[in-house]
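Session log. Operator J.P. requested a structure for one protein chain; no other inputs attached. Running the standard single-chain path with token output.
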Amino acid sequence: MTHDPQIPLVDADARAAGTAPSGIVGLRNFDAGVVETLGATVHEVETGKGPHSNYYIAPSATFPVEPSPGLPGIPVTFSHPEDVYARYRQPVIVVRRDDISPAMNRWHPGQKSWRAPAQDAEPVAVTFDRFTRAERTVHGYDRYETKDTGVPFDITYSISIYARHRGKGPLPKKGTPTGFTGAAGSPRNQVNSVLDYVLRRYAPYCQVIVEDSLGDRRRYSAFMEAVSNLDEVPEVTERVLGFAVTLRVEAELDLSDPVVSRAATALTLRSEVL
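Structure written below.
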């Protein structure tokens, strides 16, 4: 877990150590994490039917792709599985959640996310081995709150890239770092440039940054498993070029509620003569 500067450091350290309640993560946290790890940010755009908020990736030196007129960048849309038909302004990146599978090979029974004093718990002190040289006093609380760790799942996403053209103009000169620059060519609707950008964010071995319910950011291992071609050329004037990148995230979902239990504060020994 990494530290967010907007969260007090002592609280973030306690949550990371499991001595204070931490945030929870669910499917929507991972959905947003996959989109935001691409570098997309939310912008509000006027569509003629009122303002509309969506994720966009702004053009830059490492992402030299010209967006559709009126857009602040290339839109990144999360498409729910039940969405059968939707209209997109190209070029566009569409993220879909394809599969959710339990990964019990990563499950650790009995492991806890945290063990922290319960709300309104009273501090107590217990002395062991009284009146001996090994006498010691342990300080704690009379009630503790615990929560089981998240259940491990493998979540598979398809990151689809759609555009009209692979690129117009001459190829870049040999040695050009990324994309087209200056007079070397036009980056307009460059599906190859978008694919190159996605593959640099999601290499075969990579990570997805997920923000939990308290704003702490966690890193989860992810794997780019395949790249598929999505070209459709029914007519030259209506062709759609694209790629689909398959991403598998080693996720965890918090499916249990915290449990409050009373702690042992005294030890009574009873003996009798046999």
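Operator note: The longest strand covers residues 151-163.
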